[in-house]
What does this fold into?
Amino acid sequence: MSFVSPEIFAKQKVAAVQDYSVLALHAVTNLFSGPRYWADIITQMDSIGFGSLPIIVLTGFFTGCVLALQSATSLQEFGAVSMTGNLVSLSMVKELGPVLTGLMVSGRNASGMASELGSMKVTEQLDAMRALGTDPVRKLVTPRLYATIFMLFFLTILADAFGIAGGALVSVALLGLNGSSYFHNSYQALVYADVVQGLTKPLFFGFIIATVGCYFGMTTKGGTQGVGRSTTQAVVVSSVFIIIVDLLVTRSMIGIFGR
Amino acid sequence: MPEATPNSMPHQLHTGAATFDAPVVVFKDVSITFDVKPVLQDLSFTVHPGETRIILGPAGCGKSVLMKLANGLMRPDSGSIHVFGQDVTRMRETDLYKLRSRIGMVFQESALFDSLSVEDNVAYRLHEEHVPEAEAHDRVLEALKFVELDQAIAKFPSELSGGMRRRVSIARAIITKPDLILYDSPTAGLDPITSTTIVELVIKQRDVTHTTSLLITHRLQDAFTLAMNRFNQSTGKMERIPNGGIDDSTKFLVLNEGKVVFDGTTMELVHTSDPWLKDYLG
It folds into this structure.
């Protein structure tokens, strides 16, 4: 491993932020001018959205189950086990649904984007695409970006729903709660601000997953080893960004809606 | 492959800024440095319409960089590069995409899209231009027949040998009948027989359509095969130019350590007095 001077290191990091920003800006604005690759957007929606369905459903469901079990233990001390539905629905819709969906999709798709685009980069396929008169950002990044944002929104709704369903199963089967009462409490616990907060987050997370995954893919250097490095970095950076942005969005939403 | 068409032959007639017989490629004092290592230094040369310019030089002398500069895939640190009269060093990327529609490029490692079939690879540009599917299929077959690979139309790049991939790459580059073709080491890493097949295709393209081209090679044998042979359209084969003749349209550019050490005709190269060049050719 070679060491570089702090000045060069700082310049490299600033240049990376600049390159990432330019890529993200172009990826967003490309949709407002032709040519548009609608078929690629649909293909990516299928790959990212439908392809992620099993892990999202399983993650959401079992998280809801565990949440109900864990919260019931604490609530029992206050004689408030019947409030399990409130706790599960609030936690899933506001926080766990969006974040877990974001992290799972990041692990599955940011890595996929980085490795796919990285392989194309090291085998000169991106240069070939440019030489053939196609903008790789327009053809490869923009469809992935919009497909991820769009599908992550609906995947989050599914994760929320399956999480609440998982909580219901545990509450009824293991805690002996009334199912109707569980769902009534879950529904009553949620207000407009909670749903808005929970469904705003995936828009940011989708943006992070696609832009970070594609950025690391398109800047891959160093052959197959470089592809592996890009894939790892894409998952790590996008996951950390998701957690940080989650905090910022939550704080902003509390500031706007008061909860 | 079809005979020369108005689209492929007289490119100098519809080049916008370029005029009849204007140079197709002009490098003027081009320099580029990677990190601290100068790769090309004050490189200047001109390629005229219909010319096949063979770029020779030892490995790592900047040949592939030169090719990418000519196509606007990289930008030099200084100097200017005019292609069809347009300065590619100052053009926006969106304008470069339009210019590149007139340029075909064969990459060193073929750079075929590995998730697309041979047909989709060759038809890539046609699909981008929304050419009707039936017409695109016919043109793909025509291009693949030119490279004698029409039987591989449904295969994927991973199912092809190195030589076959180069031929598909050539088919992809010529399908839109470009006015300029850039061959980046089309014979690198191939066995001598397959290399000769690729060189024969380059000669066929040169003599049938008279397209201006730049060709990188570090194999002197390939370079001189190109200069001393012609394509016989009646027999469909490459043959030696009679009486030891050489092809007038084929010229040489020799690079060493990022600088031009020779720019001229085959005869001038053979009779050079430059000691390094003599040693290199020997």
Notes: The mean pLDDT of chain A is 94.
